[in-house]
TrEMBL record:
It comes from the Bacteria. This is Lysozyme. Residues 1-24 form the signal peptide. The keyword Cell membrane does not apply.
Length: 267
């Protein structure tokens, strides 16, 4: 299923407009704490691409959703559902020391409002093993209950907000760390996690490894097209296409029908 830009077409529930911005400099912002690290915060910092103004998406075969963290605070979930949200990913953890203080309100509130929800973990591969972080994630909200309305947990693999881009690891070391996380999460929950990343980061930090095709891809690219995908995947399950819009937090399309979204949640 392809995302196709259509000028003047009505998007699902609300038009999502991508605004042109100049690329951000790599050192544009100081190092901050985990409350400022959310899915795409560092991709926005390093890769920011200008979108075409007034470009809207026809989305007959896609489902609109978003992702949030403590950065958004308490979310008005009935309003988000009314604006067209059908699914959401909520940041649960970072490393092995941080838990999103807004997680209960965001995760359970989304469920109460009828959204399909999932949790994600912001990876810090230089502070502990992949297994340790997968266990911390599962133990602090990132599990998969198999209730038919919860998406598999997601591993947020992006630029290091505290230092060296690839967390001091070469490609083989990064691949091994991700495999450790994925394998541990699968053993704990019975599901492979979603992997959130950008093509540029994946190429740089894993050597464009092609061995993760059995995990769903959540691709970050703030532009008018999905663009090239990392080597592991032939298609994306979710595309994070903008960092603001009609919904709280980042804007996402699920690449399929509502039935396919529910199938992903059911496992």
């Amino acid at each position: 299923m392809k995302h196709r830009p259509v000028r003047g077409a009505a998007a699902i529930a609300a038009g999502i407009v991508l605004c042109a911005q100049a690329p951000a400099a790599a050192d544009a912002r100081p190092v901050t704490g985990p409350e400022d690290h959310y899915a795409g915060s560092q991709i926005e910092r390093y890769e920011r691409a200008g979108g075409a103004p007034d470009l809207r998406y026809a989305a007959e075969d896609q489902v609109l959703g978003h992702d949030v963290s403590s950065h958004q605070g308490a979310v008005d979930w009935p309003a988000a559902a009314g604006a067209g949200a059908r699914f959401v990913y909520v940041k649960a953890t970072e490393g092995v020391t941080y838990v999103n203080p807004q997680f209960p309100q965001q995760y359970h509130g989304a469920h109460a409002a009828g959204l399909t929800r999932g949790a994600y973990h912001f990876a810090l591969p230089d502070v502990s093993s992949g297994a340790a972080q997968a266990n911390y994630f599962v133990d602090h909200g990132g599990g998969w209950p198999g209730d038919g309305r919860t998406l598999p947990g997601a591993l947020d693999a992006e630029y290091n907000p505290y230092g060296e881009t690839c967390y001091g690891k070469d490609a083989a070391g990064m691949v091994a760390w991700i495999r450790d996380f994925v394998g541990t999460y699968r053993a704990r929950t019975g599901r492979a996690p979603m992997i959130y990343t950008s093509t540029t980061w994946w190429r740089r930090c894993t050597g464009d490894n092609g061995g993760f095709g059995d995990t769903p891809l959540w691709l970050a690219r703030y532009d008018t097209q999905v663009g090239p995908l990392p080597a592991s995947w032939g298609f994306q399950s979710i595309w994070q296409f903008a960092n603001h819009g009609a919904l709280p937090g980042d804007q996402n399309w699920f690449n399929g029908s509502p039935d396919r979204l529910h199938a992903l949640a059911r496992g």
